[in-house]
Design a protein that fits this description.
- It is flat, with a radius of gyration of 18 Å.
- It has helices at 2-27, 32-68, 72-99, 101-107.
- The protein has 113 residues and is mostly helical.
Length: 113
C-alpha cells in the first residue's frame, strides 16, 4: 500500500531531472550555442518547478484527508482550487517571463542574442 503511494511520488520528483537529461541529449546534437541556451532554460524551468512544487505538497494531504473521510465533494473542491491557483500563477509567470525575458537572461549571465 505504501509503494502504491511512494512510486508515483518518486516518479513525479524524478520528472524534472529526467526531462533535462533527455533535452540535453537531443539538443546536444544541434551545437554548443543551442546547448548553452538549453542550460539557461533548464535553470529557469527548474526554478519554476521548485516554486510551484508547493501546490502538490499542500494539496496532496488535503485531498487525501477529504478522500479518507469519504468527502468527494471537498476533495474535488480542493483539487479545483489548486488547479485555479496553478493556472493563475502559471499565467502570471508566463507574462513576467515574456515581458522580462531580457532581464532574466541578464540575471543568468547570458546575452539575449
Amino acid at each position: 500500500q505504501i509503494l502504491a503511494l511512494a512510486v508515483p511520488a518518486a516518479l513525479a520528483l524524478a520528472a524534472d531531472p529526467l526531462l533535462q537529461v533527455v533535452d540535453t541529449a537531443f539538443v546536444g546534437h544541434a551545437g554548443p550555442d543551442a546547448l548553452a541556451a538549453l542550460g539557461i532554460n533548464s535553470a529557469l524551468f527548474t526554478f519554476s518547478f521548485l516554486v510551484f512544487n508547493f501546490l502538490g505538497t499542500a494539496t496532496t494531504p488535503l485531498v487525501a484527508r477529504a478522500k479518507s473521510s469519504q468527502n468527494a465533494t471537498k476533495a474535488g473542491l480542493v483539487t479545483l482550487q489548486a488547479l485555479t491557483v496553478a493556472a493563475v500563477c502559471g499565467s502570471l509567470l508566463t507574462v513576467a517571463l515574456l515581458v522580462g525575458s531580457d532581464q532574466a537572461l541578464h540575471v543568468m549571465g547570458a546575452d539575449p542574442e
